[in-house]
Design brief:
alpha+beta, Endonuclease, Chain A, four-stranded mixed beta sheet, 6 helices, 4 strands, about 50% helix, globular
């Protein structure tokens, strides 16, 4: 399926070319595995979405909002991901670059207050999401 290949290639490209905020958050998430759990970055989710960061164990998606985010598209994405059982957190690039302790504390608060059973499998680009 060409769309699946295109989505995976786009996710791979985004991993190689992160924004400054994504790069900073990834360094923290990668190094804080003991307290935050394991996260993946730029992970295909459904047929048309890519999660900036995802914890399959905690069923949390973290989205980094820069200048180019479309609020109506973000609402559809959040709705779809929530319906798949994931808790979606959004942070602005500015918050990540200037208020990282607050960002990390927010993630920890969600992990501690919204316990989820471990996901049985990663969200697959093959799962259909219907029409938004």
């Amino acid at each position: 399926m060409p769309d699946k290949k295109r989505l995976i290639a786009f996710a791979r490209d985004m991993r190689w070319h992160p924004t400054k905020a994504e790069e900073k958050l990834w360094r923290i998430l990668r190094n804080e595995k003991s307290s935050l759990g394991k996260f993946r970055r730029q992970h295909p989710f459904g047929e048309k979405y890519i999660a900036d960061f995802i914890s399959l164990d905690h069923q949390i998606v973290i989205e980094v909002d820069g200048d180019g985010h479309d609020d109506s598209r973000d609402l559809k994405r959040d709705f779809f991901m929530s319906n798949q059982g994931y808790y979606v957190l959004r942070f602005s690039s500015d918050d990540i670059l200037s208020r990282m302790p607050h960002v990390i504390q927010t993630i920890l608060n969600v992990i501690n207050s919204h316990p989820h059973p471990p996901a049985t499998q990663a969200p697959s680009p093959l799962k259909g999401e219907g029409k938004p």
